[in-house]
Amino acid sequence: MNYIIYKTIKFIGSPIFRLAYRPRSYGENNIPEEGRIILAGNHISVLDALIMVSTPKRIVHMMAKKELFESKFTNFFFRSMGCIPVDRKIHDKNAKNEAVEVLKNNEVLGIFPEGTVNKTNNIILPFKYGAVSFAKKTGAYIVPFAITGKYKLFRKSIKITYGKPYKVHQELEVENNRLMNIVKRMIKEGNDKNKK
Fold first, then answer.
1. Which residues make Cβ contacts (< 8 Å) with residue 40, sequence separation at least 6?
2. Confidence (pTM)
3. pLDDT confidence bin for 5, thresholds 50/70/90
4. What is the C-alpha separation between 164 and 156, in angstroms, rounded?
5. Could you identify which of 41, 74, 97, 114 might form a hypothetical disulfide with 145, taking C-beta atoms 3.0 to 4.6 angstroms apart as the criterion?
6. Residue 196 confidence (pLDDT)
7. Are the CB atoms for 142 and 135 separated by under 8 Å?
């Protein structure tokens, strides 16, 4: 696919998003230029998908809740953006199959393993197993990321940091805890830097 709508939206929307929220991004060079990649990290706002689209050079296929696809227009739009609808109430086999297919095509999959926006006081919510499961099934690299700060108009108050890519080899529970701890550490480091 040539993803013309994705590229058009990114070309038009990214400058607007950058002007409005002035996001800072670090470690983009940690995202390999080719091959199957899973971007996995924390979820603090509905705007996170925008920072995920605007910062990496590669096209990111985001997994998103199926409620976003319910109307004909939104279904067309999000599908055109390469998004994969997920029914969070079940073990959605169709979503899993689509995600695996994206990776087998040597593309980039974006996942928020928390499964929802974290509105608690906890630094992070427990991760679901999707990211590590897909990585183990396909041999994809995981690139962890951390979004820190807050989305404030015309303020440099939000940033995303991408960590080093790695592969999973152990049991899913071990690997899921590993990913969660990496992201948690990155969040803490990002928050500490934001305070300075």
1. 110, 111, 112, 113, 131, 142, 143, 144, 145, 179, 183
2. 0.92
3. confident
4. 24
5. 41
6. 54
7. yes
pLDDT in tens, 83-102: 898 887 777 899 999 999 99
171, two tokens: 């049991």
Closest among 68, 64, 88, 86 to 76, alpha carbons compared? 68
Element spanning 144, H or E: strand 141-149
Which two structure tokens, joined as six digits, stand for 39?
């971007």
- pLDDT at residue 97 in the model: 92
Contact 54, 77 (CB under 8 A): no
**Better-scored residue on pLDDT, 80 or 108:** 108
DSSP string, 149-165: E---TTSS-EEEEE---
- Residue 143 DSSP label: E
State which H helix or E strand residue 10 sits in: helix 4-21
Burial label, 114 (beta-carbon count in 10 A; 0-12, 13-18, 19+): buried
